[in-house]
Prior knowledge:
The protein is mainly α. It has helices spanning 8-13, 18-22, 26-42, 47-66, 77-89, 94-113, 140-147, 155-170, 174-178, 209-221, 223-226, 246-259, 268-281, 286-293, 298-301, 303-319; strands at 185-186, 191-195, 202-206. The chain has 2 domains: 8-113; 140-321, Intergrase catalytic core (hpI Integrase, Chain A, Orthogonal Bundle). The chain has a 3-stranded antiparallel beta sheet with strand order 1-2-3.
Amino acid sequence: MSPHGTSAFVRQNISVNSGIVESVPAEIANGIDRFLVFLDLEKGLSVNSVEGYGSDLLQLGRFLAGSGVSNWRKVDSDHVSRWLGTLTKAGYAVSSLSRKLSAVKMFARFLVRERDRNEDFTELVIGPKSRRGIPNTLSEEEVALLLEAPDAGTPQGVRDCAILELLYSSGLRVSELSALAMQNVDLESGFLRVVSGKGGKDRVVPVGQRASTAIETYLHAARSRLVKAGTGSTLFLSARGLPISRKTVWHLVRRWAVRAGIEKPVNPHLLRHSFATHLLSGGADLRAIQEMLGHADISTTQIYTAVESARVLDQHERYHPRNR
């Protein structure tokens, strides 16, 4: 513990303004530190996730210090509610407030488990209400235009065709696609294994026939022309022979969308939304879509039912004779 009360794990692993760290009381900082060690060693969360929890809790710690609270035993639900109120006035988005409250709730349960407190001080805290918007999607016709846009006459064009087909076929996150290794792709069986950045959980995802064909073409006709000294086993490579970056994938998706004449903003996540929505409209089971997307909670997947409902209502409004 430093003279200012900031523990070693906080100092070494949390990138926050030093003034914020210094203003956190010793007992407050110590509790945060033990929680971060718990997340790191017992929960196995990524460095970025641990840093996110630490930053949110240190922000609350600074607010508590300003309210005259020096340890977690004196914290109650009113403190947390007032803290959220100040953040709301400061212009924080509802999604950010919800994330911060989730971090505090998890931490409060940790303190009860560690017997630092007898009760959870967040039980009576009411979180910000948000109305989750319906995600944008591409129509099946727009997807077809996008997938046909890449120039198959260059190695990059062949690669981009395989990338677009795979994003739409399997609903991968762009981070999962850029990190995909060749040994985790089994085109003969029609499956690939991805490791999600969210919790590091493996999942097996099907690959459609057209995506498999595009990947085979890329492997036989293009990848060898992108390989450089030191290239590893990552499936998709940049022009320099390195694993393709998420930023590059975003740019190439947008470039081919413009080439295809699609006017709406297109990005890799829009293909993920389209993948799920088109599966649902085709009759796929919601649980199966949840598994393919890697959602931990079915409620996250249920947003696509709203997309399908909106589509049905639109079709009814446009084509029913009594609506014209």
